[in-house]
Amino acid sequence: MKIAVIGTGYVGLVTGTCLAETGNEVICVDIDAAKVEKMRNGEVPIYEPHLDVLFERNINAKRLSFTTSLEEGLNHGEIIFLALPTPEDEDGSADLSYVLNVSEEIGKLIKEYKVIVDKSTVPVGTAEKVQQIIAKNAQCDFDVVSNPEFLREGFAVDDFLKPERIVIGSSSERATALMKKLYNPFVRSGNPIIIMDEKSAELTKYAANSFLATKITFMNEIANYCEKVGADVDMVRAGMGTDSRIGKRFLFPGIGYGGSCFPKDVKALQKAGKNEGYDFKILNSVIEINAAQKTVLLPKIESYFENNLKGKTIAVWGLAFKPETDDIREAPSIDLMEALLEKGATLQVFDPEAMPNIEKRFGDKLKYSKSMYDAVENADALLICTEWSIFRTPDFKKLKDSLSRQVIFDGRNLYNTTDIEAEGFSYFSIGRRDVK
Ligand code: NAD
């Protein structure tokens, strides 16, 4: 099939590449000319595991190409995916300007039947808006489909190739049939393609992300309470998670959720509710708790250094909002580092993939280290913000020798408290006993 994908970020580029992998001819369109040039030269502009192999294979097979021309993309594709940003607007709602502006252009440019697929995360009613905007100018038939994306950064290729489910929101039989044909190769093991109306599809995505953010936040509250009463959140988690109604996943406490999706999606649903006179009380709390959780380690750090961080050097391991990505949007590391800098600390930082993005944001305010061990050299403490695998079993002897004070503040509970105590470290984590 002939496909166009508008927007080549984490969602668009993975979508385009994976659709090419099943034999479709895909043109990816992006407004960012430098990015398009890079991709034309065979360079993957984001870090996403396994994407490079598929990317190269499909470019070489001439099934995947790139352009800045929306018109070229529209002329080529029968199915047009919108994978455009929907960032948080000033009032917390989703900024739909990217989606609506491109829709306006689409209306002016299409000459024959197209299925316009909204893959961006958008509030209920957006498919209807897109439909109306395109219809203002379109001289031909078209359908608008809501097809929210559930991929996770860091696992995006796997998630796209083997989705647990595909949600299609459409009231058009013709468009639904085309979407099923396109997606059938991805659900051969029997995972469902769930067909529903556009509004339900749009809400499914917000409901899923808000639920997951709530699950994380609930565990963070339990962890904070564990510290008050001397319980161990690891034990509580194990005891809870074995209940199949609860499940083992997403029960790990830490320094809060971040990323390009959960924060903005929870806020967008909260705001969308408000617009309808509905107060999502649970989401109000999730947002408030998560904001505080990002700096929950700060009082422990301050107390350890007797409220004097001036002149102290802190090594920071992990800057991305989660492992296996270079994405730093709303990363808890940012809040913590800003607070520490404000208190006069010097920060020596390391992340396997996110250093360039962090450098763009912090400039010369941080010291950028070449390796995890360079970062701890002569530091007074180690702070862990992201659970990259390489941090899980470090050379503790080397770590001890490099740090001028043997203390670790761990926002991701990477180590067993008893083991780390035996290694001779002071250790402060989330929802577990402090090792002083
Ligand atoms: P992104 O910011 O990584 O990428 C967006 C891309 O769109 C950029 O390359 C940008 O240059 C391009 N763009 C902007 N305006 C354009 C225009 N007028 N024409 C062509 N290209 C244009 O965004 P993303 O993370 O891929 O997210 C896209 C959407 O998917 C959002 O709504 C997001 O909420 C949703 N989503 C994201 C994820 C995720 O994990 N990142 C997962 C599921 C859903």
Structure in words:
Its EC number is 1.1.1.22. The protein is an alpha/beta fold. The chain folds into three domains: 2-196, 3-Layer(aba) Sandwich (Rossmann fold); 205-293, Orthogonal Bundle (N-(1-d-carboxylethyl)-l-norvaline Dehydrogenase, domain 2); 298-428, NAD(P)-binding Rossmann-like Domain (Rossmann fold, 3-Layer(aba) Sandwich). 44% of the residues lie in helices and 14% in strands. It has 18 helices and 14 strands. It has helices at 10-21, 33-40, 51-60, 70-76, 97-109, 126-137, 156-161, 173-183, 198-229, 233-241, 262-275, 281-293, 298-304, 332-342, 355-362, 372-376, 396-402, 417-422; strands at residues 2-6, 25-29, 64-67, 79-82, 114-118, 142-146, 166-169, 193-196, 313-317, 346-350, 367-368, 381-384, 407-410, 426-428. α9 (198-229) packs across α12 (281-293). The termini are far apart. The structure holds nicotinamide-adenine-dinucleotide. Residues 6-12, 29-32, 35, 83-86, 98, 102, 120-121, 149, 151, 153, 260-261 line the site of nicotinamide-adenine-dinucleotide.
Number of strands: 14
Mean pLDDT: 97
Q: How many helical elements? A: 18
Helix content: 40-55%
Give the CA-CA distance, first to last residue: 62 Å
Largest sheet: 6 strands, parallel
Question: What percent of residues are in strands?
Answer: 5-15%
Q: Determine Rg (CA atoms, Å).
A: 23 Å
The domain tally reads 3
The hetero compounds bound to this protein are: nicotinamide-adenine-dinucleotide
According to CATH, what is the topology of the largest domain?
A: Rossmann fold
Instruction: State the CATH superfamily name of the largest domain.
Output: NAD(P)-binding Rossmann-like Domain
